């Protein structure tokens, strides 16, 4: 297909969609009397409910069932796939890595975001730095991986004098004569990959926390300052308690995102060199090994890990709102 | 009801709404007193640090191949030598990368625009029905849709792929035919066998829970009198929807449209699963991920390709920052 026919296809799909929709709405608008309201419900709600059921509810149930079957999805094997996940020694790598990702990335992003939010609060022209720090959120994980791949480029210093990667050049300037090949440097390469996620998520944490910090009533801060609270004490006793709910939401939101991220690992190392995580292993098992049983079991593990985070997130918000 | 279940969105909307307060009144006077050169210097330092990696990408993509692969990009400032030839090679293909990125760039648009519009319209309709045409189970339906946000995409991929390829039925009765045998959508497949239809449908399905939730939050807050007056005047639900609800919901629609467009544009997982790697339908992220694997050593080309891919979101970001921030924050739990 050439460009013109692709664009024509896109335009016609959108036009047909609107055409059908308007026709249905127009025809249904002609209906009178007691049928009008039930008809409206059916037409307005029907498509969404059908799509969500076919696209999410049924597939999620099927995945759950598949997780108890063998590679081809024919024979029931009980909990064998789950046992494989948690008892195979090789799998410890991606389990431990995922745990590290969930612990480290949200904490670092949130801490940095909070620091920035507090600093921004003391700044006059904050919009440009704010935009620059938030910008990575607009970039795809794949794009971010390529950006950071450039930072982590490695040339053997015993072979060449010039370094292409920023990190190598920087640490060599600082006096580290023979830095490692960053992406192969186990287990530290995991942390280098996390840096990419932190780079992306800090802007998110900053924007949300900055809004929360600005929402602290000035009277409270002033009263605390009149009482002699400054610096660290003000931060510890006033700022943090006032924004605790937002802090929790930011932490859990980033944790949820981290749990499901696979783009960074796939693009940077494809899970090699001890950097595998659950989400990428799930993709590899399902679409490279074609072991649907194990792939599905890993998806269920992701689901089970995400649920408490989201539930906690939502209850925290409700609690916040009921106080106010 | 929507206030109670507002979730992150309500929180974010609320905090964003209070954000402009920093530009006036007493708090601004207090802040001026607090403003410190150290804080400013530290923020500027971090902002520069945060920008350097992206700057490195841009500079590398503009350097001649030999330079880009043998010296660090920062040396280009001392010894300027720039070219656009990497871009022409990566766009249209050349000696190293056959084919080029241009078709994938187009594919991303062809995927993203319908995949943003269609779920948005369907979500507006559903949200209106749930908010203003209530029935006995409407609360339950809304909560069920809200809860579906918990399901990771990964849970739906395999069965959905199978459904699109093989259809679904009970025994010998086909209830849902495979996409390729559907009347209109099936004929959209290219000669290579790839089709955009699975991508559009999958993205629509995955977008709906969040979209319905966000737009419901907005629509349910519209004044009740408005709808009652319109009903008394004899307006049908369909008239109310097109003439009242849609025009009034523009802010919510714009935020979600931008969020969803960028989500689809930046998505790798759905693209990889439903498009494969074919030049006919694969989005730019899939192509980038592949050339990073195959031609990762050709820094000048990979960086040019990546910049082409990120320039669209960056333009949207700088042009529509306010909507963008709102939409991104509201949607940050998606996926």
Supply the key terms.
heterodimer, A: 324 residues, mainly alpha, MetI-like fold, 73% helix, B: 335 residues, 2 domains, two-stranded antiparallel ribbon, 16 helices
What does this structure look like?
The complex is a heterodimer of chains A (324) and B (335). Chain A is mainly α. In chain A, 73% of the residues lie in helices and 0% in strands. Chain A has 13 helices and no strands. In chain A, α12 runs antiparallel to α13 (292-323). The longest helix of chain A is centred in the C-terminal third of the chain and has 32 residues, at 292-323. Chain B is mainly α. Chain B has 2 domains: 22-92, no CATH class; 102-330, Orthogonal Bundle (MetI-like fold). Helices cover 68% and strands 2% of the residues of chain B. Chain B has a two-stranded antiparallel ribbon with strand order 1-2. In chain B, a hairpin with a 2-residue loop joins β1 and β2 (173-176).
